[in-house]
């Protein structure tokens, strides 16, 4: 099944007309028609929106070998479980707490080890904690798109 056929099938399943889908995506009805006839291809940002509207993965839309909707739903379920885990405040707290305790353990053993080694490890842990905080805050604000 081609991408255009999948778009047409999913659009009809969700009860959208070509006009209503075009309005949601801020494109013309003719664009949607061309996609469905495989005369043109949606841009990447429209593929992302289509996958969210239809509740399927982008891989399902693009891969002509994926025709089984059960595969589509299983992939989506796995993605949703991962997203729920990452958005859970306990996940971030656990990652941050583990990083903090490792950093403190390194700092405690600083007197017994080479200063350069310990400083390198401390810097690496600090960067890890900082990046995890940035990633988590961006993800909560939906600035990182999960595919």
Secondary-structure topology with pairs:
Blueprint: H1 3-14, H2 18-25, H3 29-36, H4 44-54, H5 58-62, H6 69-87, H7 89-108, H8 115-140
Describe the 3D structure.
The protein is an all-alpha fold. The chain has two domains: 3-71, Orthogonal Bundle (434 Repressor (Amino-terminal Domain)), CATH 1.10.260.40; 88-140. The protein is 74% helix and 0% strand. It contains eight helices and no strands. The protein has helices spanning 3-14, 18-25, 29-36, 44-54, 58-62, 69-87, 89-108, 115-140. Helix 2 crosses helix 3 (29-36) and helix 7 packs antiparallel against helix 8 (115-140). The protein is elongated and about 70 Å long. The two termini are 21 Å apart.
Helix and strand run: HHHHHHHH
Instruction: Find the CATH topology of the largest domain.
Output: 434 Repressor (Amino-terminal Domain)
- Which regions have little confidence, pLDDT < 50, spanning 5+ residues? none
Number of strands: 0
For the record, the CATH class of the largest domain is Mainly Alpha
User: What global shape is seen?
Assistant: elongated
Please identify which CATH superfamily of the largest domain we are dealing with.
lambda repressor-like DNA-binding domains
**How would a textbook summarize the main sheet?**
none
- Class of secondary structure makeup: mainly alpha
Helical percentage? over 70%
N→C terminal distance: 21 Å
> What is the overall pLDDT average?
76
Number of domains: 2
Helical stretch tally: 8
- What is the strand content? under 5%
Evaluate the radius of gyration: 23 Å
CATH architecture of the largest domain: Orthogonal Bundle
């Amino acid at each position: 099944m081609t991408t255009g056929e999948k778009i047409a099938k999913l659009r009809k399943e969700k009860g959208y007309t070509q006009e209503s889908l075009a309005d949601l995506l801020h494109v013309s009805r003719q664009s949607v028609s061309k996609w469905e006839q495989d005369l043109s291809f949606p841009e990447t940002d429209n593929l992302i929106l289509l996958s969210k509207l239809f509740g399927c993965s982008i891989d399902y839309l693009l891969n002509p070998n994926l025709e089984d909707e059960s595969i589509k739903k299983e992939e989506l379920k796995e993605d949703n479980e991962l997203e729920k885990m990452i958005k859970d405040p306990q996940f971030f707290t656990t990652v941050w707490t583990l990083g903090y305790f490792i950093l403190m353990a390194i700092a405690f053993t600083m007197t017994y080890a080479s200063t350069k080694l310990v400083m390198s490890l401390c810097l690496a842990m600090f960067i890890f904690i900082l990046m995890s905080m940035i990633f988590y805050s961006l993800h909560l604000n939906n600035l990182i798109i999960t595919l």
